[in-house]
Amino acid sequence: RKRKVTKRSNNSGDQKLNNVLKRLNANAIPQVDEINMFRADGSVLHFQQPQLKASIQSNTFVINGLGEDKGLQELLPGIINQLGPEMMNNLRALAESQGFAGE
User: Fold this and answer.
1) Which residues, at least 6 apart from 44, have a Cβ–Cβ distance to it below 8 Å?
2) Whole-model pTM?
């Protein structure tokens, strides 16, 4: 006797996540070119053309895309306006280690 085998897809986790996002009223934010997440060690988690969903009232943000670990110097000078005060200190230290003279 033959048994009928049904194949299950592996996207049940995606469905659960989408259901939770619907409950939170998360909306897609269009036209996001890149997202940079700065780490304490000076590296950057860089997303190019990600899909971003946000629920402001729940303080929840979901980034969907391929993230790449990059060094701070790889993304310069395009991210200088995104740097906070502590990352500017890392940038100064990086410039001194490379032999660039400061003010």
Assistant:
1) 36, 37, 38, 69, 70, 71, 72, 74, 75, 79
2) 0.64
